Amino acid sequence: MGTRRQLDARGEPGARRQLDKVRRLVVKVGSGLISAPGTGADPARIAALAAEITAVREGREVVLVTSGAIMAGMARLALAERPRSIPEKQAAAAVGQSALMWQYEIAFAPHGITVGQVLLTAHDIGDRTRYLNARNTLLTLLRLGVLPIVNENDTVAVEEIKVGDNDNLSALVASLIDADLLVLLTDVDGLYTDDPSVSAAARKLDTVESVTAEIAGMVWDRAGRVSVGGMATKLEAAQKTAASGIPMVIANGAASGVLGRVLAGEPVGTYFAPKADRLTARKRWIAFAVPPQGRLTVDAGALRALTQQGRSLLPSGVVDVEGDFTAGEVVAVVSETDGKEVGRGLVNFDAAELKKIRGVKTREIEARLGYRSVDEVIHRDNLVIL
Q: Where does residue 176 rank: exposed (0-12), middle (13-18), buried (19+ CB within 10 A)?
């Protein structure tokens, strides 16, 4: 009954959407909403977006996460096809980013709004010091009345340091600045039970209480290959914001006045409810901002201790160690039973040390390593159960 209630979005539409007290908002816009094929950034579309943001900015702080730099660069460089190699993408982004920001400057100037460019990579978010620096920069810009415009720094990012998509980047930014709401503006009306372009029975969900396996399964076609409307990354973003205690809405950015309607609590798009037990800022960083540098497989006893009893991870529960990591880095904790990731944490040993002590009692650690060390592989305070 609970699942059917969730899927049918029964009850009063928008009943969970108590968004009138939102004071800090992150808005993410995809490149398709602000550009036209072959012409790059579309001044009319960006002007419309600027008017939307201005209308909801009174009494609120807004951060805009935008795509479109590579597309803008393609237009300026007269490239018929999207670049495939990393250097070509970086070159297109270098040319396009300035063009895109210039369009935003022009669009917001009549409203008396100063914009500021903030370019990030996964390293900026994954490194704790740089993470805090990015937070301080964004909060200072907001305090000064500036509209920060955030994008991934595609001019220098390679696969190893890319966040990868701006849906997840916007979720990380929302967590970074303790936003009250994240709105993903896209070209669809929300999350549907099926692809509405091919199924007459497809229904838009008003509210999603939790991104379950059933919910996640809705974004794939019947062949299991193609994501409908780019929803896969949007659901990943929803999981991040929910764990951070931040609600999220997916809405059609082409609809007039959509931001104002969302903030008024109208049943626009699909609303993703936040979890009541939000993670602390530090645990949010561990869980979402840092790519795991290795994997620790744990046995059933350790899995119960971690997930049901709130314990730390001890060497006796570790059955396998993968990766080349150092002490203090983030590693994934996976179940021996099904190989699924159950948590992430800051490890107290490097990979070589852990291979020597996996499966042993804590009293045997000193004998195995030849020196005294801590008892916990990952202390509970540094562990996040996903």
A: buried
Give dist(CA 188, CA 305) in Å, integer.
Answer: 43
pLDDT number for residue 27: 98
DSSP secondary structure letter of residue 196: T
201 or 111: which leads in pLDDT: 111
Residue showing tokens 């190989």: 339
d(CA 79, CA 7): 43
C-alpha–C-alpha distance, residues 38 and 371, integer Å: 64
Q: What is the CA radius of gyration of the chain?
A: 22
Pairing state between β 115-120 and 35-36:
unpaired
pLDDT for position 153: 84
On the 0-12 / 13-18 / 19+ scale of CB atoms within 10 A, 74 is buried
pLDDT value of position 159: 52
In total, the chain counts a number of residues equal to 386
b/e per residue 211-229 (b: at least 16 CB within 10 A): beeebeebbeeeeeeeebb
Q: How confident is the model over 242-267, as pLDDT tens digits? A: 999 999 999 999 998 999 999 999 99
Q: pLDDT digit string (tens) for 126-154? A: 888 999 999 999 999 999 999 999 998 87
DSSP state of 279: P
CATH 3.40.1160.10 in the chain, residues?
Answer: 2-280
More confident residue, 213 or 264: 264
User: What residue ranges of the chain are covered by domains with CATH 2.30.130.10?
Assistant: 292-385
Record: fold of 2-280? Carbamate kinase (3.40.1160)
| CATH superfamily of this structure's domain 292-385 | PUA domain (2.30.130.10)
Q: Hey, what amino acid is at 206?
A: D
Q: What does the pLDDT look like over 267-282, one tens digit per residue?
A: 999 999 998 888 888 8
Q: What is the dihedral of CA 20, 23, 24, 28, to 10 degrees?
A: 40
Global confidence as pTM: 0.83
Per-residue pLDDT tens over the stretch 62-107: 999 998 888 888 888 888 888 888 888 888 888 989 999 999 999 9
The DSSP call for residue 205 is -
